[in-house]
């Protein structure tokens, strides 16, 4: 059985209850209190203009920042009541920018995803190697296995970091703009991967049309406030999109595919 099958990965319920964040108690909140409940196995797209609070929320979800208020639960357990290693076994994250000075090969970087599952100073075992090899094949990284990470293009580095996250075999996958630096082919591969994995996925995206295709739910943010949450066809009205992004918006149905697509113009 594939190590990436739903039976092995699984997914988790994510509940965000009255969560907010600011740099300090004396400074204004960057992310205002918000709540949502994402059911296991669903894909949530975070959308909003630059500075809306998307990356701030993601940093709370993968336990980088402590919420100023509220709590985040994965399968009913507060992630701040769990040990960091235990959280890393259920939540994996892929960030926008990656360090380029790793003195490691591509396979070495991908193998780092197995660290939360090891005991003490143990090295990779046969099961780890099988997982690493399968993930690298799935992400089309076999030919790059022995390249140094720092020599890769931005798009190649992004695929390596997605692979590293998948080797953690998480239940929740957090992706911050995963299609940045990718050409059209690899953007489509990432979208296919999102739809193909039986995981709970939370992803920030700039492309609203991509969001409608790839996501089961959306959370719309503006100035740190939640403007809407739910299925894209119920939340993403032309009025809401126009207000959030300060553009004129039209929603059109493509005749051949019967899919909806937004078009935009600058507001006057």
Give the helix/strand layout.
Layout: H1 6-9, E1 14-21, E2 31-38, E3 43-47, H2 54-61, E4 69-74, E5 77-78, H3 84-88, E6 91-94, H4 106-111, H5 126-138, H6 154-167, E7 172-176, H7 184-196, E8 200-204, H8 208-214, E9 217-222, E10 225-230, H9 232-235, H10 238-245, E11 247-253, E12 260-266
Parallel strand pairs: 3-8, 3-9, 6-7, 7-8
Antiparallel strand pairs: 1-2, 1-4, 4-5, 9-10, 11-12
List keywords for this structure.
268 residues; alpha/beta; Rossmann fold; six-stranded mixed sheet; four-stranded antiparallel sheet; ATP-binding; Iron(3+)-hydroxamate import ATP-binding protein FhuC; transport; hydrolase; EC 3.6.3.34
Structure description:
- This is Iron(3+)-hydroxamate import ATP-binding protein FhuC.
- Keywords: ATP-binding, Hydrolase, Nucleotide-binding, Transport.
- There is one protein chain.
- The chain folds into two domains: 6-236, P-loop containing nucleotide triphosphate hydrolases (Rossmann fold), CATH 3.40.50; 237-268, no CATH class.
- The chain is built from ten helices and twelve strands.
- It has helices at 6-9, 54-61, 84-88, 106-111, 126-138, 154-167, 184-196, 208-214, 232-235, 238-245, and strands spanning 14-21, 31-38, 43-47, 69-74, 77-78, 91-94, 172-176, 200-204, 217-222, 225-230, 247-253, 260-266.
- The protein has a six-stranded mixed β-sheet with strand order 6-7-8-3-9-10, with helices on both faces. The protein has a four-stranded antiparallel β-sheet with strand order 2-1-4-5, with helices on one face.
- It is globular, with a radius of gyration of 19 Å.
- The mean pLDDT is 88.
């Amino acid at each position: 059985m594939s190590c990436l099958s739903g039976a092995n990965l699984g997914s988790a319920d994510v509940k965000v209850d009255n969560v907010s964040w600011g740099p300090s108690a004396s400074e204004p909140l960057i992310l205002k209190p918000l709540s949502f409940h994402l059911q296991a196995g669903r894909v949530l797209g975070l959308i909003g203009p630059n500075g809306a609070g998307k990356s701030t929320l993601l940093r709370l979800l993968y336990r980088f920042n402590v919420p100023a208020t509220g709590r985040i639960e994965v399968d009913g357990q507060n992630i701040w009541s769990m040990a960091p290693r235990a959280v890393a076994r259920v939540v994996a994250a892929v960030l926008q920018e990656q360090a380029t000075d790793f003195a490691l090969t591509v396979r070495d970087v991908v193998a780092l995803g197995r660290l939360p599952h090891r005991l003490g100073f143990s090295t990779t075992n046969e099961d780890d190697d099988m997982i690493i090899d399968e993930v690298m094949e799935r992400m089309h990284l076999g030919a790059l296995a022995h390249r140094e990470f720092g020599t890769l293009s931005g798009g190649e580095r992004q695929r390596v970091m997605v692979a590293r996250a998948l080797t953690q075999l998480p239940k929740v996958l957090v992706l911050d703009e995963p299609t940045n630096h990718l050409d059209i082919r690899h953007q489509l591969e990432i979208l296919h991967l999102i739809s193909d994995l039986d995981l709970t996925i939370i992803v920030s995206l700039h492309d609203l049309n991509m969001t409608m295709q790839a996501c089961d739910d959306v959370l719309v943010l503006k100035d740190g406030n939640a403007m809407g949450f739910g299925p894209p066809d119920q939340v993403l009205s032309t009025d809401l999109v126009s207000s959030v992004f300060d553009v004129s918006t039209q929603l059109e149905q493509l005749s051949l595919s019967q899919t909806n697509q937004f078009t935009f113009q600058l507001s006057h």
